[in-house]
Amino acid sequence: MPRSRALSSFSQGARATFANATTVLPVVVVMAFIAAIADQAIYDAFGGDGAQDQATLVKVLFAWLGASLLQEILLGPIVGAIAVYVGRMHSAGQAAALYPAINFALGRYKRMFLPRMIAQVSIQIGVALLLFPGVIYVTMYAFVDSVACLEEKVWPIDRSKRLTRGRRASIVGIYLPAVLIAQVLAFAELWALQQGVIVLALIFIVIYLMFFVVNVAFYKLYEERTTSVSRPADDSGSDGRASTEPATPASR
User: How far is CA 216 from the centre of its chain?
Assistant: First the structure.
């Protein structure tokens, strides 16, 4: 059951993402180029191709992690909210246009900022240092974006922890393959740096697109969880049902 639920949610996430490619791709490309330019600048600052000793490479890796966290903290809430919007509009049978998606994200930026920062810093540091702790955090925080976007009277961290109970195996099934693929692609980064920013950005486009699908899949899993008639009693603190009505800029 968790495997089939994970496959179903990921499939829905992929369909929603590629059905709205004209909205998703500009977001993914911008994020990828920001990451590529930052990583290239850091690499060059530490000596570029001449910095091949282990101590310097460790410093470069930690600097890349810091840059990635900063980008995630500042811009991640926008991308996360757009993923929720894309998933929600797909469930309503409607296209997710870029301008309304950005409006939706900006209208929820303030509410998303702190809980998403807590969740993503925990996840990314956990994945970077030992992988397993990051996966554990994902199983608890997978619904933070959806809750922060759609439920106003609850603390997203606590609500996500409650809602993910009974869905954590499915969350691992969605997330773990993506993070393993991303780590394999990361080994190509040093080679890509020698080819130029464009090549590096192409690698990041693949990674960001893959995780956008993961984020939409998490929304689909959240939607299934909150509309289930068999929700446990401990979720009664907030209705939190994901409306099938399309979200518009006016619904901030």
Answer: 8
